[in-house]
């Protein structure tokens, strides 16, 4: 559309302006000495350089606008993407996956495959030079890729692979692994595959209807073996949390825990390593009924939040797990921090606890204030955020536009995504790191998924063909990396020399997002609306909140102080998402001006396909029948075509109920594929927004 084309044009314009500005100032410093040692001597020269740039800027802008107006008619987003071409590209992405997958299977039970030499890659315990925390002789690539098989509808191979894992996988090994990598790849892979296996087993069960109608009843033999393996693995990771702060060690031995002095004395971990456990650990707790996993992961997040810089709400990248002191104080959204932010927002979506949303919003505001500089994301010092900590960005930060889509900040997402696309245009592949003038800083390319992930989410949010064309270009470039036994990355994007390595995330994420980008909703065999993607691209069902609350009932409404967690212990959890309506809505009390009334709230979610509102949490209290009646009436009357709720319909629907307000978040949510419009009338329901769910505040007479 014209609006997207204009946004992209402005983004490219901003990138080129900042590129020339950085280049001019860099030349100024190089020609006249470092700014710190020659500050006063050459201050006037640099100011003159800035002035010259400012004078030239209008001319540059005019020329650039003319160029972009000329290019506008050629923008991929300006023309319709051919339907048959989309089908062909989806087929190509599928073939690419199978080329890599079958090549790996020939080396099973290896963790990964070396795509050029066609050999399996194992963890060599007796080789001190082979230090790779992500592999552990547990068939990593196979576990990491399981849910992709279901997405493509290959249930037969899905069953064969699960039987291999059940037969061969054993975590009782004297091997030290990364807690973070093992969690997101292995634990996440097992949990996602288990959820999908149960759905394949009972595709017509309304409580777990995660699959499209094309999937038939299969896998009657499956008896939750993957969940048993996940629980075994989870318990082997728990010793890592034996620290003074609750922030886990970065590494743990699968058999001996922290018995090694080397492991116990390693007191540093990255923010993302400690803060990216809650999705998988909470899922494990909800599915097994043992709250210890969620409690530990939540404790780690609480500790990171506690040790943030209170004035800036920024966090560093490396922290001491015993003292809580920051070891590396640069703050950014790339390596070391990336998925910490991601998991705060997604924990709210998955679990419904607004504490996570509150913390994410605080961090997000700080990132956009201090770290975001136009389309660039530049690390700053957490205590002095006006000081730049490093002058380059890494490829991992390409996930940020996708997270911005989930947040609803679409304009910023488009701008930053366009910047990454410009880097790729200049260098053919996204280098591992690049400078603010878009030059190569670290030259290797590992076929990381983050840029494709953001491309997928932006296309899902905008439905613009520009992002399909972007994906097409990436697909063609990945095809050029095809070798005999998979796809090989590059040692240097400038020379094109291959690297004999293909990480498990190439199958688990890169090729998955490429396949999904060219797939319509009914072509994925999985109802994506009912899942959240983990940072490794694994599917976790968003109705987990129906199974039970957190082990510590810290959920509080947005009208309360979400930082002051309740210490009230839970009663026994509900057994599943099939409980009656009145048992599934949480409510909270707060004194209103009228002391004869009490203020409560209910959180519900909208199913975009049926137009029905479902309840987002389980609780030991029962919602009043009047509120249940109101929610059911809302579902019956919801205008699905216009996506509008007429608030007047509910003025007198429940005589004993006074609805004070209903909150939606006006930002676009990608899994709804539409924007919820504001009401057409002004009523006593003072606010209407749409976010992950709908929050109804009400009061009842005592």
Describe this structure in words.
- This protein has 702 residues and is an alpha+beta fold.
- Among the domains are: 2-74; 581-701, no CATH class.
- 42% of the residues lie in helices and 12% in strands.
- The protein contains 19 helices and 25 strands.
- Strands 21, 22, 23, 24 and 25 form a 5-stranded antiparallel beta sheet that branches.
- Strand 1 and strand 2 (119-121) form a beta hairpin.
- The longest helix has 31 residues, at 2-32.
- Keywords: Calcium, Endoplasmic reticulum, Glycoprotein, Glycosidase, Hydrolase, Membrane, Metal-binding, Transmembrane, Transmembrane helix.
- It is an enzyme of class 3 (hydrolase).
- Ca(2+) binds at residue 535.
- It holds the Pfam family Glyco_hydro_47.
Gross geometry:
globular
- Number of helix segments? 19
Poorly predicted runs are: 25-47, 49-53, 70-79, 550-609, 613-623, 638-648, 654-702
- SS class: alpha+beta
The fraction of residues assigned to DSSP E strands is: 5-15%
- Give the proportion of residues in helices: 40-55%
- The total of beta strands comes to 25
What is the average of the pLDDT values? Answer: 77
Question: What is the makeup of the main sheet?
Answer: 5 strands, antiparallel
For the record, give the distance between the C-alpha atoms at the N and C termini, rounded to a whole number.
54 Å
Q: What gyration radius follows from the Cα positions, in whole Å?
A: 26 Å
Protein name: alpha-1,2-Mannosidase
Binding site for Ca(2+): 535
Active site: 181, 338, 432, 450
Transmembrane segments: 53-73
């Amino acid at each position: 559309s014209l609006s997207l084309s204009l946004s992209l044009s402005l983004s490219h314009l901003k990138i080129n302006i900042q590129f020339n500005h950085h280049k001019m100032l860099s030349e100024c410093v190089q020609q006249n000495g470092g700014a710190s040692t020659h500050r006063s001597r050459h201050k006037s020269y640099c100011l003159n350089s800035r002035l010259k740039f400012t004078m030239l800027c209008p001319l540059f802008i005019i020329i650039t606008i003319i160029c972009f107006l000329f290019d506008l008619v050629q923008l991929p987003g300006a023309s319709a993407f051919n339907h048959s071409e989309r089908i062909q590209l989806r087929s190509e992405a599928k073939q690419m996956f199978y080329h890599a997958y079958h090549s790996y299977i020939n080396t099973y039970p290896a963790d990964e495959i070396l795509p050029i030499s066609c050999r399996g890659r194992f963890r060599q315990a007796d080789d001190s030079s082979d230090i790779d925390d992500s592999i552990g002789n547990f068939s990593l690539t196979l576990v990491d890729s399981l849910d992709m098989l279901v997405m493509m509808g290959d249930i037969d191979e899905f069953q064969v692979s699960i039987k291999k894992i059940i037969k061969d996988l054993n975590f009782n090994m004297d091997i030290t692994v990364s807690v973070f990598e093992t969690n997101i790849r292995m634990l996440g892979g097992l949990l996602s595959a288990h959820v999908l296996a149960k759905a394949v087993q009972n595709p017509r069960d309304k409580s777990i209807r995660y699959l499209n109608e094309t999937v038939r009843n299969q896998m009657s033999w499956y008896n939750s073996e993957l969940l048993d393996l996940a629980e075994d693995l989870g318990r082997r990771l728990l010793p890592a949390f034996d620290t003074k702060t609750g922030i886990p060690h970065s590494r743990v031995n699968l058999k001996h825990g922290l018995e090694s002095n080397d492991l116990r004395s390693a007191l540093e971990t990255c923010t993302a390593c400690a803060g990216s456990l809650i999705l998988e650990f909470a899922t494990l707790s909800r599915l097994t009924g043992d709250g210890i996993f969620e409690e530990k992961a939540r404790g780690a997040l609480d500790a990171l939040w506690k040790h943030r810089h209170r004035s800036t709400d920024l966090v560093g990248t490396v922290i001491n797990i015993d003292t809580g002191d920051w070891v590396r104080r640069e703050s950014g959204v790339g390596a070391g921090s990336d998925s910490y932010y991601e998991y705060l927002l997604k924990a709210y979506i998955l679990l419904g606890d607004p504490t996570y949303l509150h913390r994410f919003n605080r961090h997000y505001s700080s990132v956009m204030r201090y770290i975001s500089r136009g389309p660039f994301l530049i690390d700053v010092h957490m205590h002095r955020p006006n000081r730049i900590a490093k002058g380059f960005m890494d490829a991992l930060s390409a996930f940020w536009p996708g997270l911005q889509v989930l947040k609803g900040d679409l304009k910023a997402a488009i701008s930053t995504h366009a910047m990454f696309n410009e880097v790729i245009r200049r260098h053919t592949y996204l280098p591992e790191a690049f400078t603010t003038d878009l030059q190569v800083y670290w030259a290797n390319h590992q076929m990381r998924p983050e840029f494709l992930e953001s491309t997928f989410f932006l296309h899902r949010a905008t439905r613009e063909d520009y992002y399909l064309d972007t994906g097409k270009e990436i697909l063609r470039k990945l095809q050029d990396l095809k070798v005999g036994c998979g796809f090989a990355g590059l040692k240097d994007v400038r020379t094109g020399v291959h690297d004999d390595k293909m990480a498990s995330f190439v199958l688990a994420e890169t090729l998955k997002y490429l396949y999904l980008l060219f797939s319509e909703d009914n072509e994925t065999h999985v109802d994506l609306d009912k899942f959240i993607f983990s940072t490794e691209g694994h599917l976790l069902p968003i109705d987990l909140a129906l199974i039970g609350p957190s082990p510590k009932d810290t959920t509080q409404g947005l009208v309360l102080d979400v930082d002051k967690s309740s210490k009230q212990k839970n009663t026994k959890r509900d057994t599943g998402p099939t409980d009656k309506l009145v048992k599934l809505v949480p409510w909270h009390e707060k004194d209103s001006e009228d002391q004869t009334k009490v203020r409560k709230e209910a959180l519900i979610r909208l199913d975009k396909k049926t137009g029905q509102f479902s309840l987002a949490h389980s609780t030991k209290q029962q919602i009043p029948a009047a509120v249940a009646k109101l929610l059911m009436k809302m579902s019956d009357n919801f205008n699905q075509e216009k996506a509008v709720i007429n608030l007047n319909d509910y003025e007198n629907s429940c005589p004993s109920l006074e609805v004070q307000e209903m909150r939606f978040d006006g930002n676009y949510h990608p899994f709804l594929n539409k924007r919820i419009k504001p009401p057409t009338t002004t009523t006593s329901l003072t606010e209407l927004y749409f976010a992950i769910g709908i929050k109804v505040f009400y009061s009842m007479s005592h």
